[in-house]
Amino acid sequence: MKKTVVLIMALVLTFALAACGKDNNGGNDNGASPTGSAAPGGDVKGSILAAGSSALQPLVDQASKKFMDKNSGISIQVQGGGSGQGLTQVAEGQATIGNSDVFAEEKLDADKAKGLVDHQVAVVGIAAVVNPEVTVDNLTKQQLIDIFTGKVTNWKDVGGKDEKIQIVNRPKSSGTRATFEKYALGEKTEDLQGSIQEDSSGTVKKLVKETPGAIGYLALSYLDDSVKTVKYEGVEAKEENIINGTYPVWAYEHMYTKGEPDAATKAFLDYMMSDDVQNGDVVELGYISANKMQVKRDAEGNISK
Amino acid sequence: MAQSFERQKAKPHVTEEWVGRVYTLLCIFLLVATIFSMVYFVASRGLTTFFGDGVNVLELLTGIKWNPEGEPAVFGALPFIFGSFSTSILAALISAPLGFCAAVFMVEIAPRFGRKYLQPVIELLAGIPSVVYGFVGLSVIVPLFRDIFPGQGLGIAAGALVLSIMILPTITTIATDALAGLPSGLKEGSYALGSTRWQTISRIVLPTTLPALLTGIVLGIARAFGEALAVQMVIGNAPHIPRSLFESTSTLTSAITLSMGNTAMGSVHNNALWSLALILMLMTFIFVFIVRWLEGRSKI
């Protein structure tokens, strides 16, 4: 008899697990089309799934926790996965919000990107960094192009000491690399023989710090004394220089929704843009507030005041 | 009396039989369904590159230039295939002699101490997460190679060394089991004919267990082939065939993990990554077939 009971329990468990799988799918579906509805008292209910960019994830994660403390009716789930995943999932309706480091038009087909509404919640600056032993502290655009396309392979050709240049790159699909190539170099580069590619900023920093003659690029939030930040065309990679538009290597952090957001999602996005987050979490985590920017940029890279 | 008693006892066993049968059948069905859906998913995605996006199969397998976001996009995966094979085979070359000798020591030379203490220690290696191997590789092996050899330390040599430690438990455990499973009559016969311990090991024990030892190597290579995280951290990830063991290069797995999250589903770049996954999967099937074939040749 005991054995039968155990077997039946095992059976039940299997079905329960299978049902769990279904439930999860159901949960995702809910996330895709959140049933956010404004109750009479102004209390909004709903569930939000935000997926995508790992560069933006810490900010959204931190903000969503504070938001949920204030709005118990809304539950927000934040996932990583990369900008491409975020954009795909929001375009296909699997996620409510797609976090991305790049404009949707740069990753998705034009007709898919058209249905997405952009919410720019923060700005990240990106700076070229070199090994602390490298004596160069300013690089022009042309010098950077020459280095990243392999025309210049020794630091002495750009005013440094006689040492081989070691490129530490991000992968082709990375949003940071796309931004750096677009606004610092102005052209796409190929992966050179012998160059290093790492998929996380932490590893890039570690390798630039340790490898003699290394050059790479990092978001400003990753910068510290372990690597040396070089000026771009004589301009320092600093928050105020980005805000007033003199330092051009920066990108928006986007939170895309499919069509106009529903009440719950809108409440969260409004909270992201509130002074609470923009002056608090955004600054704390090393991003630049989108509200402070004195210049604007569109998907084609045109700058306007 | 006796009859009815027996009948009462038999009945629950019938249900038991059936419940067990249905349950196990369900489990195996679930397994088979998972495997088939995985194969179908990877294959359908991976083949889209060739049939939907018009990339030539031969070009993908033999091309040496990988520029998926370029104009025009070029998909040559040979550097990745080369990287995967060279790191895993080199890892097996480092690991196999170590594993065999460890197994010989544990079974033939110091059986009691070896099996009681050494084997658990070696099997512990299998339980260490691959990210730990990768980080140790990046923090210890890479700087060491950078100081000793020309180049940046990242590359096939570092990848192979990290992998060789990872696959050591697989090779050692299978070799130990094979040696221990050898009928004692064979060894005793050899000793009776007057051969020494080393003659017995090298002429009787190793040749007889060779298919099992090779099985261990192939399983080790298969594990190394599929390992992504640890290799990605120490190999450098440049999509080129390297000119030395200490120059940045890529493997199939590292190319996939590096870009999968950042590419949009359905884009050519993403599909090309699935094609790499398909190559990986086919290679794993081939490894499984080799293991099957080797098992069939076992002499014990």
TrEMBL record, chain A:
UniProt-listed InterPro entries: PBP_domain, Phos-bd, Phosphate_ABC_transporter
Complex and partners: The complex is composed of two ATP-binding proteins (PstB), two transmembrane proteins (PstC and PstA) and a solute-binding protein (PstS).
Protein name: Phosphate-binding protein
Keyword Cell membrane among UniProt keywords: yes
Chain ranges of the PBP domain: 38-276
Keywords: Cell membrane, Lipoprotein, Membrane, Palmitate, Phosphate transport, Signal, Transport
Record function comment: Involved in the system for phosphate transport across the cytoplasmic membrane.
Compartment(s) where it occurs, according to its Swiss-Prot or TrEMBL record: Cell membrane
Residues spanning the signal sequence: 1-18
CDD domains tied to this protein: PBP2_phosphate_like_1
One Pfam family from the record: PBP_like_2
Recorded family membership: Belongs to the PstS family.
NCBIfam families: ptsS_2
Organism name: Cohnella kolymensis
PROSITE patterns: PROKAR_LIPOPROTEIN
Stretches that traverse the bilayer: none
Protein origin, superkingdom: Bacteria
Membrane topology: Lipid-anchor
TrEMBL record, chain B:
Residues in ABC transmembrane type-1 domain copies: 81-291
Predominant location: membrane
Bilayer topology annotation: Multi-pass membrane protein
Compartment(s): Cell membrane
Signal peptide range: none
Family, as annotated: Belongs to the binding-protein-dependent transport system permease family. CysTW subfamily.
Name used for this protein in its record: Phosphate transport system permease protein
